[in-house]
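Students often ask what a holo structure prediction actually looks like on paper. The answer is less mysterious than it sounds. You provide the chain, you provide the ligand, and the output is a string of discrete structure tokens encoding the 3D arrangement of the protein together with guanosine-5'-triphosphate.
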Amino acid sequence: MTRKILIIEDAPTIARVQKHIAHKVGFEADIATSLAEAKQLIAENNYFCAVVDFILPDAPNGEAIPCSVDADIPTIVMTGNLDEKTRNTVEKHPIIDYITKENKQAYQYLEKQLTRLPRNEQILVLVVDDSPATRRHICNLLARHKYQVIEAVDGVDALRVLAENPSISVIITDNEMPNMNGDQLCVEIRRLYNNDEKAIIGISAQDTLHLSTRFLKSGADDYLSKPFNNEEFYCRLSQNVDMLENIKTIRLQANTDYLTSLPNRRYFFGEASQHLKAAHAAKKSVSLGMIDIDYFKSINDKYGHDSGDDVLKCLSRCLLKYFKDNLVGRLGGEEFAVFFADNDPQQAQQRLEKFRHFIEKHSAEFSRDNITFTLSIGFHNGPVYSIDELIKQADLKLYQAKETGRNKLVS
Ligand SMILES: Nc1nc2c(ncn2[C@@H]2O[C@H](COP(=O)(O)OP(=O)(O)OP(=O)(O)O)[C@@H](O)[C@H]2O)c(=O)[nH]1
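The corresponding structure tokens follow.
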């Protein structure tokens, strides 16, 4: 079900722009043009978030803010100006953020915030502090922005929680704690996890000399002095989360074939090598199927390159579906591979043969031009020492399949 946000705004043009932004990032949106209307909509609906105008005809001094905040709706306030009095009023409420409506950037910022909120729900943050009051305060700040939160009382406890919860991606840690302080915790975390897996933000009392550099040199990514300003806390946190996500995106792009979205050759080799090492240690053999489309050049020649691309995409989807428990990759051109880490060569071979039959019968049903094609497969099983060797052996069989008539599996 699409989530809904509530826009409380009396200026129709601004409300329209905000609604457009909401739709763009995947929300439905209701518009209330007054506080009275907002109250009614809140009573009748569940809202994921609210964007509230500071000045409304029946709420000239930010009176609409508590209306959404008290209903536990994460609230972003939009203001025409941000003088001292307005800022003081706005900051009294536990809102997510406030944005001045002065320029185009304000709406880009709103879009960024609305995009972040659902993303934050997937992010698990570990808060490490021996003071229950500070932990509660930080956890409340995080919960307001919809982060998932988990707590630890000192460095030793944090390492245990980290081991039990591998999905933690950000650690916010105090320094002065019994058993293991924040600085030592950073060193331990960096011994186990890289900066591109988990971000650490150190927090400590403002008057502690050189602590920020000590934290950073021990492996923290960022540092905040207590007492900190909520806005700065959120800015630093989201910058660190953005950094982790950017690294994840870059890594995914580097490992994925741009056309078919299958793992590319590089990723396939890396993963298969890992499996191969494990199989070798367990004295097990592995299997590999090299799959090649027959006469693919003539498909390109007859239907055009775009249709050829479409066939490659369709075959990739079928491979992913058919071999969802195995490592599948596009090794290049019209050549694909399936790696079987399990120790049952007969079953692996049968599954490949079944797949070849399936494509022979149904290939025309997948592509937009209903193109018929067949596959040649080279299969190898054995105690090989490297993935190159495994591919070389399977390639030799594939060559035999091509040489002896195509549309067949040779093992
Ligand atoms: N559309 C499309 N074609 C590609 C892509 N990558 C490689 N090709 C084409 O795939 C064709 C492969 O041709 P060949 O190596 O002669 O193989 P074939 O025609 O399939 O013949 P056999 O393998 O011997 O059955 C070439 O024409 C390449 O240009 C791609 O990403 N998209």
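The domain at 121-254 is CATH 3.40.50.2300 (Rossmann fold).
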